[in-house]
Amino acid sequence: MSDPSSSDAVKSAGWLGRLTAGLRKSSAKLTGGIGDLFTKRKLDGAALEELEELLITSDLGTAMAARLTANLAKTRFGKDVTSEEIRTAFAADIETTLTPVAVPLEIDAGKKPFVILVVGVNGAGKTTTIGKMAKQFRDEGRSVTLAAGDTFRAAAVEQLKVWGQRAGVPVIARETGADAAGLAYDALNEAKGRGDDILMVDTAGRLQNKDALMDELAKVVRVMGKQDETAPHAVLLVLDATVGQNAHSQVEVFRDVSGVTGLVMTKLDGTAKGGVVIALAERFGLPVHYLGVGEGVDDLRPFTAEGFAKGLLGLS
What is d(CA 13, CA 208) in angstroms, rounded to the nearest whole number? Predict the structure, then answer.
């Protein structure tokens, strides 16, 4: 009989490998930059300034860049330092910053269904993220319903239906342009009637007209609240890591519009801007529930502070 803990260890090792590979572009920029600055060099004012600039251009944000270099200076200023010493020190500091936000998404079994509203701009990967999460929930033995609330984009509805088939879960959809709040209301009614564990609701992300988006999302929340005053129980903002610092304004908009409770970062494998995860954690303090580093269902996994910090600095 196989040992389940060894199987978990293999899965964990496999994910860390994919995470490290997924962060390669971001890691190469940081580790290459630090390596270029420090083969063996004294940590003086000029060196600290160059390091801080590298961190800022790697999307870690000005506040985090200042903190990392200041902490480094406390113990090593005026001393000869190597690239590896700097990367190890930064990784430890980054892990400390990320640990409070590395919070798994908890499904409250007392809420049936547990309603997850998924928000974000079009193209961020909302629909794919919902599909991957649904598949993982089903693999855990939970019953799930999906609601295709991005009713203005036929492609989003069709994509969600494909994921629904893959995951073996029902998808509730309406004609193009249908009222998203009405759809959410019906979906909650159906999921409740079936006794489902989880209802995941996709939404539109048309930031061109912020007021219309705000009204639509507020209406979705309000209408679901008529059936269950505690719904939605989680509001996940999906962010495409390739947008870098633009992610900050997206967090502000969707936090104000829909009361975001946690973040999902996607497409980390396609960018050198992975450092934005740290900048967002430092600025907003919102839980980061999942990271996406590829197209496969297993390439969306819970966020871990240590794995991310070491992967980003090329230490894993």
Answer: 42
CA distances, 191 to each of 102, 112, 141 (Å): 29, 8, 16
**Distance set, CA 46 to CA 51, 73, 292 (Å):** 9, 12, 37
Residues 6+ apart with CB under 8 A from 290: 105, 129, 133, 264, 265, 300, 301, 302, 303
Residue 174 burial class via C-beta count within 10 angstroms: exposed 0-12, middle 13-18, buried 19 and up: middle
| 59 torsion bin: left (phi>0), alpha (psi -120 to 50), beta (else) | left
Which one-letter DSSP state was computed for residue 23?
A: T
- E strand or H helix at 116, and its extent? strand 114-119
Residues 174 and 195 grouped into a single domain: yes
- For residue range 199-220, what is the model confidence (pLDDT) as tens digits? 999 999 877 667 888 889 989 9
Tell me, what's the pLDDT at 103?
Answer: 95
pTM exceeds 0.90, yes or no:
yes
- The closest alpha carbon to 117, from 259, 288, 214, 287, belongs to 259
Length of the chain: 316
Q: Are residues 278 and 184 in the same domain?
A: yes
pLDDT in tens, 156-211: 999 999 999 999 999 999 999 999 999 999 999 999 999 999 999 999 987 766 78
Full domain range(s) for residue 250: 114-303
Beta bridge partners of 263: 237, 288
20 and 274 Cβ atoms separated by less than 8 Å:
no
Last residue of a domain, one of 68, 101, 134: 101
Cα distance between residue 226 and residue 222, in whole Å: 7
Residue 291, domain CATH: 3.40.50.300
- Structurally, how many domains does the chain consist of? 2
Give the helix/strand (H/E) hosting 199. strand 198-201
Q: Do residue 274 and residue 131 come from a single domain?
A: yes
Query: How far is 113 from 197, CA to CA, in rounded Å?
Result: 5
